[in-house]
Amino acid sequence: MIHVIAFYLFAVLTIASGAVTILARNPVHSVLWLILAFFNAAGLMVLTGAEFIAMLLVIVYVGAVAVLFLFVVMMLDIDFASLRAGFVRYFPFGALVAIVLLAEIVLGIGAYRAGALELGSPDGTAATPAGASNIEAVGGLLYSRYLFLFEAAGIVLLVAMIGAIVLTHRQRTDTRGQNIRKQNMRRPGDATVNVKPEVGKGVQL
Amino acid sequence: MDWSHSLRLIAPEETLSIAGLILLLLAAWGGDKASRLISILAVAALVGATALVAPALCGGAMGADTSAFFGQFRADAFSSYAKILIYLSAAVTLVVAPAFFERTAAMRAEFPVLIVFAALGSGMMVSASDLLTLYVGLEMNSLAAYVLAAFVRTDGRSAEAGLKYFVLGALASGILLFGMSLTYGFTGTTSFDGINAALAGGLSNGAVFGIVFMLAGLAFKISAVPFHMWTPDVYEGAPTPVTTFFATSGKVAAVGLTMRVLLDAFGDQAAAWRQIIVFIALASIIVGALGAIGQKNIKRLMAYSSINNVGFILVGLATANVQGASAMLFYMALYVAMSLGGFVAILMLKDEAGRPVEDIQSLGGLSRTRPGLALALAIVMFSLAGIPPLFGFWGKFLVFQAAVEADLMALAFIGFAASVIGAFYYLKVVKIIYFDEPVNAVTGESDVWHKAILVVTCLIMSPLGYLLTRWLSGLTDTAATALFFTS
User: Fold this and answer.
1) pLDDT score for A130
2) Which pTM does this prediction carry?
3) Which residues from A are below 8 Å from B162, CB to CB?
4) ipTM of the predicted assembly exceeds 0.85
5) What is the tally of structural domains in chain B?
6) Which of A199, B76, B119, B327 would bridge B402 by S-S if both were Cys, CB 3.0 to 4.6 A apart?
7) Is residue A114 part of a domain?
8) Are residues A98 and A30 in the same domain?
């Protein structure tokens, strides 16, 4: 029973916060709703017994979203003073969200303790090998059965990296860089010149 | 599963990825000065990979022996045929590119490296026999393609093309992934054979949704109507050698992938997707033909022409039989030759300072100032229009013949009528070249490589090309049989 309640709670909140992500007018709010959606998706993963993927969702996506958040804050002209203004007014709503999240954690842990949710019957390829943890099972597949795709995905990332460098890196000619070797090779004799200008002629360099 | 057997089957992919990595190191150390050397080595690697895949086509490889890595990858005669087209057109792109980038000094050492990786991804697409291979190959190809489209950073149009392609491509990938996840959810497997077996009992509604979403994503990649809107902008904005690459190698990969998915994974469900393909094919033919009429830029015209031609290729897919697939493959080889010829001719249209001339009106009276180039353009246009003595006619004839024999009379008839509309804008270009007053806009000299490639492709398109018919249809029949063998 607790499984079903937890599942529907997570599922409804995932979809609802996904919808609000699109509907929110303020980009910062969008990003926060997106984080909520990811947390709930991670909760669903925990329910099905895929703890590793749940942690991956939280670490990778919430981490990535935090970076995205920084970009949004840097690039958009948002008046944070006006955002902070309604703290007291929005406090009840904030508290409600906090309570929902707390309830989710309690329910999630309870459901997890009660054993994984049975979603259909895993066949030979989808079932976790007996006695292996999630990470071991994923790693085992990644480096054996899916080795070819794993390597290919590495090349995809390499292409992305080359692309980013090609499109953004350029040699600038209008700035002066420091050439340490040239500096070290320089002798005091080359750097300073003694001149004896005649009176009234000025200095010729 | 035998690892050494699998590793032998992916020898062309290994060659290309190792070559790409070595060239990347050369590019990092040599800088842009080394780009000529890197281009030459990349062409050598692509030709070498072609030589490695050719035996599978000539030997007619098919069946369980060609399956590598637990059925994720298939190196049969079909994939070999598509890969030969992909690798060779990538090599031609590299041959024609330096002269184009020379004027603006926009050639970078990374260009050949990206082309090699894009060709590698395209090769994986046509060899995919698993949804995961499909997606990884597609992304490898697309990521490189986005960067290539935006390659000339000083040109605003190029940057716009890259950005547009990237945003819309990411959307299409999302739709495709959604379809793939639905398919996986309703069949419980990602392998094409497994999907085929799981759907043998009939299609559930969810699986139909999966097919529709996957088709939408794939239709974007082959630039078929109604997912074609990016094509003219990207083809116009991207540097011309890159456009050549998209229109040849990218197109073959995407069409090959679509054939794999529909004829292999969903091969027994042809009734479910045939009407979609018929609609997409007719819409592409008609929109491609009508959209091209108002174009003033020759690269945009070629983009609409490519939409139009994809429609004709898809007519063969609607038949869902060996004859149709063979006709598609034949048409694709011809289309690659015609696109290469067409875009190389466009590359040769430049003014005294070497700036590209893309306005169609500036071609007026080209026959009097540059008779050779004018003749080549006329051959390309007549061949794309499918006017009988030229070889382009035979490709159209084969797909329509396949459609008629599969009892798709309406499709064949409407397609045939629309190809007459299409002939109008091709003929308009020929009329401007031959009968308008000379404008004298095209005065620049061309690279010898451009001329050589133009002569070769024109010979293929000319009536002399019919000498190839027997040999080429033998190859396409083998490849099409291999595609249907496992399903």
Assistant:
1) 67
2) 0.87
3) 167
4) yes
5) 1
6) B327
7) yes
8) yes
